[in-house]
Specification:
Blueprint: E1 4-12, E2 17-20, H1 23-39, H2 57-61, E3 83-87, E4 98-101, E5 106-114, H3 121-134, E6 144-150, H4 151-157, E7 164-165, E8 185-194, E9 197-198, E10 201-202, H5 210-228, H6 238-245, E11 249-258, E12 261-264, E13 269-272, E14 275-283, H7 288-294, H8 297-300, E15 313-316
Antiparallel strand pairs: 1-5, 1-6, 2-4, 3-5, 6-7, 8-14, 8-15, 9-10, 11-14, 12-13
Helix pairs in contact: 1-3, 5-6
Length: 317
């Protein structure tokens, strides 16, 4: 249905630097600018109306459009990004303030590419290397991309070992395994703010609904598979899965609303990107089909802002 490749990246600087409270937004913005500089064949002109608009690697990854002949999302000018970028949990400060980092601090992140987008991995990694050279943070502090390794290798070894080192050719993508179906009872942890739309508004602590959450995962996986899957189809029975979602029982809820802000360089404004964090327990005994789809939640993230690391979910049995 959907293949994916994940990379753990480590940057290093010898300078003291000031980072924003939410580094995911900073890293995504720096990556996008660097990717366009690296791959644009039209001298960085405006993408809309460009003769390469629907074939360019930049628009395919970062300003993703539905194909002109697509029968899905026909009312929209943008499709889901085929990537998730997130920083390590201890670097998520959940504040709108800045934080001073000590001399020699490393900066780590994880980049996942879905479906056909994984073939662009060498260009993506080159863009990150370029982004580090141009600098991160308010002061544009230069960073060196020190090491890259498959995400699964990092989790096994606990360090960025056995992968790419500075000066080497960038590696071809390594396909990660499809997640195993979830057990009948699971404990979800929302590590970064979950911005989950419900009836035109964001879900709150009071009205968090497992059916809404489950179908958000189904739609996200389905859209990624439709636009970027190798077969171009989801293989999902949406009607059956929606019926199953109403049978999920919420057995535990410990949620709170976490305020979070980012600065949008495009809109020149400070934006609220807060959402739900905490945990929830689900009984999936009546939803056998959803147990496989919900297993993708930790991989693809859920809700709004996933490409910058929001909606990060961990699952415990």
């Amino acid at each position: 249905m959907l293949s994916w490749a994940g990379y753990y990246l480590r940057f290093h600087t010898d300078q003291a630097w000031t980072a924003p409270g939410f580094p995911g937004s900073m890293l995504r913005g720096a990556f996008g600018h660097a990717l366009k500089r690296c791959v644009c064949a039209m001298r960085l002109r405006e993408c809309t109306g460009c003769s390469l608009e629907y074939t360019c690697l930049y628009t395919s990854l970062f300003e993703t459009r539905p194909p002109p002949d697509s029968k899905t999302m026909t009312r929209y000018t943008r499709a889901p990004h085929p990537f998730v970028l997130s920083t390590r949990l201890e670097q998520q400060n959940a504040t709108d303030s800045t934080e001073k980092h000590e001399l020699g601090r490393t900066l780590d992140c994880v980049m996942r590419l879905f479906g056909k987008a994984r073939h662009a991995a060498p260009f993506v990694l080159r863009a990150f290397e370029e982004a580090g050279k141009h600098g991160f943070g308010w002061d544009n502090t230069p960073f060196t991309l020190q090491a890259v390794c498959p995400e699964s290798a990092f989790h096994r070894q606990g360090q960025a070992a056995g992968g790419w080192q500075a000066g080497q050719p960038f590696p071809a993508p390594k396909i990660e395994p499809v997640p195993e179906p979830l057990p009948e009872t699971v404990h979800l942890r929302f590590l970064t703010p979950l911005r989950l739309p419900r009836a035109g508004k964001l879900s709150t602590v009071e009205n968090f609904d497992p059916a809404t959450f489950s179908m958000a995962v189904v739609r996200r996986v389905g859209l990624l598979a439709t636009f970027f899957g190798d077969e171009g189809k989801t293989g999902l029975d949406f009607t059956a899965l929606k019926a199953e979602s109403t049978k999920i029982r919420l057995v535990e809820k410990h949620l709170r609303w976490q305020k979070l802000f980012r600065y949008s360089s495009r809109q020149k404004a400070r934006q609220s990107v807060g959402g739900l964090v905490g945990s929830a327990g689900l009984d999936l005994a009546g939803a056998p089909g959803l147990r496989q789809v919900l297993a993708w939640a930790p991989v693809v993230h859920v809700g709004k802002g996933t490409s910058m690391g929001l909606g990060q979910v961990a699952v415990q049995s």
